[in-house]
Specification:
By secondary structure, this protein is an all-alpha fold.
């Protein structure tokens, strides 16, 4: 008989952020997302909404975490769009080919000792490239997907650096 797992200790409740800190957080995030959308649109990226999505994800992280998350997201995206483009060009279209590409991405990340979150971001990018790119434009789609993420990360890191978010005492950074 397998023993029951030990119950996890309850996390102490953190006080809810004040209305002022939520307002500043919302303004900071909206500014970053708006700048990211404007930059992606000005550069003529076909699907500019991916840039602010990335910006929002990175901006929602703490200052120290945003640098780490950004590096993992960028590396995972690069691997994902590359393997996705190769799948479209080299393998027959279908679920089996897609699953093999996701497996290959996971093995590359694992054997390279890349953090698992890079695999998650890479899998998302791979899926977008495989499902959205016509065969003749796959490298273009892969490039724009990577550029979208890079714009989003760049704007988020700039905002995080220029306007660091105040973290209440006792709250993890």
């Amino acid at each position: 008989m397998i023993p029951a797992p030990e119950p996890r200790p309850a996390r102490p409740q953190q006080p809810a952020p004040s209305g002022r800190s939520w307002t500043l957080h919302a303004v900071r995030t909206a500014l970053a997302a708006g700048l990211s959308m404007a930059l992606a649109t000005a550069l003529g990226v076909p699907d500019p909404y991916w840039s602010p999505i990335t910006t929002i994800i990175v901006t929602q992280s703490g200052v120290a975490d945003s640098w780490l998350i950004s590096r993992r997201r960028l590396l995972g995206t690069l691997l994902g769009v590359t393997i996705g483009a190769l799948q479209v060009l080299l393998l027959p279209k279908g679920v089996l080919s897609y699953a093999l590409a996701i497996l290959l991405l996971g093995l590359v990340c694992g054997f390279s000792r890349i953090h698992q979150s890079a695999y998650r971001f890479g899998g998302i990018a791979l899926t977008i490239v495989v499902t959205a790119a016509p065969g003749d434009a796959v490298w273009r789609m892969a490039l724009f997907r990577f550029v979208d993420v890079a714009i989003g990360i760049g704007v988020a890191l700039a905002i995080t650096r220029l306007w660091p978010e105040a973290v209440p005492p006792g709250e993890p950074r």
